[in-house]
Amino acid sequence: MAIDRIWSYAPDSGYAQDQELTGYTVAATDGTIGHVDRQADHFGLRHLVVDTGVWIFGSSVLVPVGVVTGVDTAERRISLSCSRGEVKAAPRFRTDSETMDRDYLAGVGDYYHRLPPRETTTT
What we know:
- By secondary structure, the protein is α+β, with helices and mostly antiparallel strands.
- Helices cover 14% and strands 30% of the residues.
- The protein is built from two helices and six strands; from the N terminus they run E-E-E-E-E-E-H-H.
- Strands 4-3-2-1-6-5 form a six-stranded mixed β-sheet.
């Protein structure tokens, strides 16, 4: 996957342009990680901020939309191409201002871009 594609939904992901995903459950390849708290598109770097609840001590993670493999509107569920451990090991998301920090976003994009490719799963 090209690094710039990490910030764009795959054409076969099921995402419809301008679709509101807030509140959707987010599932990694090996289980649920939380729900979409908000979605953003700063500098053309589209991403989801996922509230992990108690899974990572009540914090949130930032996930580039390029790792979304499926959007199931009926189930209000998003599937990712990475595991829970890979999401947990991503650069830590601490404050909302980081969604506007190009250096932080570049680091997140680089991390997810370097993950091993996976078979796409359907939701």
